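Chapter summary example: a protein plus magnesium ion.
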Amino acid sequence: MNSEDRANSGGAVLETQDLVKQFASVKAINYLSIAIPKQGITSIIGPNGSGKSTLINCLSGTLPIDGGMVIIQGTTMRAILPYHSPSHGVTRTFQEVRLFNQMTVLDNMLVVLTERGVLKSLFERSRSAHQSRAQELLESVGLWEKRRDQAESLSYGQRKLLEVGRALAMDVKIYLFDEPFAGLFPAMLERVSQLLEGLKQQGKSIIFIEHNMDLIRRLSDYTFVLDSGELLAEGPVNEVLDRPEVIEAYLGT
Ligand SMILES: Nc1ncnc2c1ncn2[C@@H]1O[C@H](COP(=O)(O)OP(=O)(O)OP(=O)(O)O)[C@@H](O)[C@H]1O
Ligand SMILES: [Mg+2]
C-alpha cells in the first residue's frame, strides 16, 4: 500500500502532499508526499541534514511551508501557525530545547498546564489540580527533585526531559518528538521509552526522530527514511532497516 492509499483508507493522522521547504538554494524538503499512520509509534530517520527536523517543523507549523500541503487529521493546512497547533491536536519538542530559562522547572511545567500566556498563567497556577498534575509529570521524567531550580541550570539531558514532560502535559492526539533521547543517560532513556509506549497505549499518534538503531527498532512500528529531503523508503521498521538502499544511505555518510 503506498502513502496515498493509506491516506485514502483513513489510516493517516498526518499527511504531506508535494511538500516543499527551501532555505536559499537548499531544498530541505523536496516534493515530499507521505502519510503517517494513525496508530502507534512512527520514526523519521535519515542521515544528518536529510530534512527530518524541517519536516517536523513544517508539520507543527513552526516553519511556514513553501509549497504543497500539510493535512492534519484530514484537515488541509496551507499555513499553520505554531500557536494554532495545539488546537489542531499537535504538540512537539525541539531538537534544540526551548524552555523559559529564567523560570523554575515547576513553573515551566505550570505554564503549559494552565493558560497559554505566561501572564494569565500566573493567576491560575496555584490551583491544586495543576500543582498535582505538574508533580506527576515532573516525577514521570525524573525532575521533581529539581522543581525549584532555574531551567537554565539544568544539564542538556535534563532540559530534554523537561521538554518531553511539557509535551506530555498537552492532552492532544499527535506528539512530535525531535530526538527526545539525545543526551540521556540509559536509565532516563528507558524512562522516556516507557513514556512514549504509554502514549501509544492511550491511542495517541507518536512520531519521533532518532539516530540510534536499537531505539528505532525497539520503539517504532513504522518508519520513514528521508534522504536529501526526499522519501528513500517507508514501511514496518524491521523490513525497512534491512533494505540495501537504507543501509547505504547510512553508511554513505
Ligand atoms: N533555518 C535554516 N536555515 C538554513 N538552512 C537550514 C535551516 N534549517 C535547516 N537547514 C538546512 O536544511 C537541510 C535539512 O536540515 P534539517 O535540520 O531538517 O536536517 P535533519 O535531518 O534534522 O539533520 P540532523 O540529523 O543533523 O538533525 C540541511 O541542509 C540544513 O542545513
Ligand atoms: Mg534534526
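Key point: Residues 225 and 232 are 5 Å apart (CA to CA).
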